[in-house]
Amino acid sequence: MTAHAEPQPTAETETGVQPGSRGPGSRRGVSPQDWWIIGLLLAFFTLNFADKASMGLAAPDLEKDLGLSAGQYGLMSSAFFWLFAAGAVSLALFFRRIGWRWSAAGLMVAWVASMVPLTVPTTVTVVIASRMVLGFFEGPAHALCQSIVADRFPSERRAFAGAVVNAGSSLGPLLATPVLTWVIVTWTWHAAFAVLVAVGVVWVVVWLLATRREPGMGPRKAADEADVGAAARTEEDPDPNGDIEVPLSSLLRVGSFWGLALLSFAGYLISSLKVSWLPSFLHDGMGYSRETVGLLATLPYGLAIVVLLTAGLISGRMLRAGRSARAARGFLTAGYLCCAGVAMIAFTRLSPGPVQLALVIAAFSINSVAFSVAFAGAADFLPRKHRPGFFGCIIAVYSVAGIVAPGLLGVMVDAADTVSQGYADGFLAVGITICVFALAGGLLLNPARSREVLLAETARRRAACAEAAR
């Protein structure tokens, strides 16, 4: 790679980021415009999760208006995930051809369009189709956000910037719950979707205005796609891993891919159960009134923001202190998730009370670390053009947790002698699974080693091409 500055200290190279080519954030400094972009992505992700929460908030009125049974409503809710993985992979691969600016705007337009039919009286078929389309276009949202963060921030700041964006996963439900509930009570559940549509349109306009002069937000030039190394990159548009030339299939075979997949799967087990079962568990399993549950259910979301930002800061400081990316990304994420798993195991062994409640809140507050700190490690060895596809494949893997976990917990609750025992058995199994997956994922995620493997494969491919050309 071309060196544009004095050699970096040895500790820096341990992060898997090459000296002198750490990305635009490092080269020109992190500007106020970078943080404006992060703020807009935070709003983007907040709307993403407000969309997810909207169905649950509208559930009572929706069931009444459409004459749904509980089973039919459950089927309708699950429709969101039917095409989630397909969208995560296919759209992520497409986005690198049109650039981040138009990709983000296109996703938001698609979200708005999918919700427009719900702003007026409708049918069950239309609602299911709407949720399927919304799930398809929300699938790649996280991959897109993390790719933009990786483009604009150096390694030591990437985890914190990613954590700020991912805080939207908690801000969405926190803000949507009181606002949309008030809208539904005051008017109808259709009005709640009208509010989301209006806010989405405003976001598209602001985003397109804010990024209109951002060269890094546009599509990749053909020359960039064909280039074989970072030496040919411009100062304004560098790729710290441009010297890696392998197909996406090779990236999916490295240990770090499976490490990220396992860490993310463990995190999404918590996310899916928090959305689908936490309120019911607090009421039926722990005996809190519905009014109290309305307050308690928001606490994990609030604490999750603190956990996310703290984890991002710790990861960056570990890199600046000379720790490896394996420790600052993989081990740190695994440690957080293991704390969540242990807390979940512990609260299943306790009777309802303040200690159990504290452990429940702790267990359901740590899920998002895997989607910011761990994902930041992937950008340390991924070529720019493969980031969306790579992240999309990971999302496709961990989205399986959103399909499987809620249903399996319901089966265990139904099979137990009492509801409380069913929850205890189910969360015990989930807690153990989280710990196992977190430990395995933390050991497999090794950005520096993955970079070495990919560089070796690049060298072999170039040698083979040179030999064939003779």
Keywords, separated by commas or semicolons:
single chain, 470 residues, mainly alpha, 23 helices, 0% strand, disordered N terminus
Give a short synopsis of this structure:
The protein is an all-alpha fold.
**SSE order, one letter for each helix or strand:** HHHHHHHHHHHHHHHHHHHHHHH
Overall pLDDT, averaged?
82
Q: For the report, how would you describe the main beta sheet?
A: none
| Approximate shape | globular
Strand content: under 5%
Number of strands: 0
Total helical elements: 23
Structural class: mainly alpha
- Provide the gyration radius in Å: 22 Å
Straight-line distance between termini: 26 Å
Relative helix content:
over 70%
- Give the low-confidence spans: 1-28, 220-237
Question: How is this fold's topology laid out?
Answer:
Blueprint: H1 10-13, H2 24-28, H3 32-66, H4 70-78, H5 84-98, H6 100-115, H7 124-138, H8 141-152, H9 155-166, H10 168-186, H11 189-210, H12 222-226, H13 248-251, H14 255-276, H15 278-285, H16 290-296, H17 299-320, H18 325-347, H19 354-363, H20 373-378, H21 387-415, H22 419-444, H23 447-469
Helix pairs in contact: 3-8, 3-9, 3-10, 3-11, 5-7, 5-21, 6-7, 6-8, 6-11, 8-9, 8-21, 9-17, 10-11, 10-17, 14-18, 14-21, 14-22, 17-18, 18-19, 18-22, 21-22
Describe, in plain words, how this protein is organized in 3D.
With 470 residues, the protein is mainly α. It is built from 23 helices and no strands. It has helices spanning 10-13, 24-28, 32-66, 70-78, 84-98, 100-115, 124-138, 141-152, 155-166, 168-186, 189-210, 222-226, 248-251, 255-276, 278-285, 290-296, 299-320, 325-347, 354-363, 373-378, 387-415, 419-444, 447-469. Helix 6 (100-115) packs antiparallel against helix 7 (124-138) and helix 18 (325-347) packs antiparallel against helix 19 (354-363). The protein is globular, with a radius of gyration of 22 Å. Residues 1-28 and 220-237 have low confidence and may be disordered.
